[in-house]
Design goal:
- The protein has one domain: 3-Layer(aba) Sandwich (Rossmann fold).
- Helices cover about 45% and strands about 15% of the residues.
- The chain is an alpha/beta fold.
- Strands 3-2-1-4-5 form a five-stranded parallel β-sheet, with helices on both faces. It has a two-stranded antiparallel sheet with strand order 6-7.
- The protein contains eight helices and seven strands, in the order βαβααβααβαβαββα.
Length: about 240
Amino acid sequence: MTQKSALVLFSGGQDSTICLAYALRKFDRVETIGFYYGQRHDVEMQCRETVRDAIRREFPEWGNKLAEDHVCDLSVLGDISETSLTRDRPIETEVGGLPSTFVPGRNLMFITLAAAVAWRRGIATLIGGMCETDYSGYPDCRRSTLDAQELTLRRGMDFPFVIDTPLMWLDKAETWDFAQELGGTKLVNLVVEETHTCYKGDRSHRHEWGYGCGTCPACELRAKGYQTWRQQVPA
């Protein structure tokens, strides 16, 4: 086991890309893992390698630390989920207050499979972009959930796992600021141009904050955070 390596849950989106930059600043060797689960916005899977290539090109010192990428097929999750992320259905608030984009068990399965890969490769640190400051209310993004899962993984695999969530207490404006802090304008531009967040998988409309439909909750949150951050950045 090495404390100098990390495995990043990497979707190709804004948050996971910033988490990847954080890991590359902090660790000597960083691997990534992504999941296909029948998501409507599966264009994010194409963005993953584009982002990895852009990091190697724009940040050679990070590129030397960027190691293997793993992709897991979790399409069964899409088969059993009737949500707005896995079905062509409207995005709305469900009975009980959760949005229809909530995929039950998604993050729990992601982290468990990531831990299984990390265990095999001797990596104790898992890094994810979960956040409960600006988020959609998903219960599997709460730090209390991740603390419980961290304990379960430690006991179930007899391995000192740590689930590191650097964005947990940041709002989206602070997340953009964190990108600026980690990699300057180059990283901010990379996030704008290459990452994907839109729930509808739209990469035909370019906005100042990136590509997307501009109307789904993910786009609205990303846009609002960007605009707030830009207002705070000194001219």
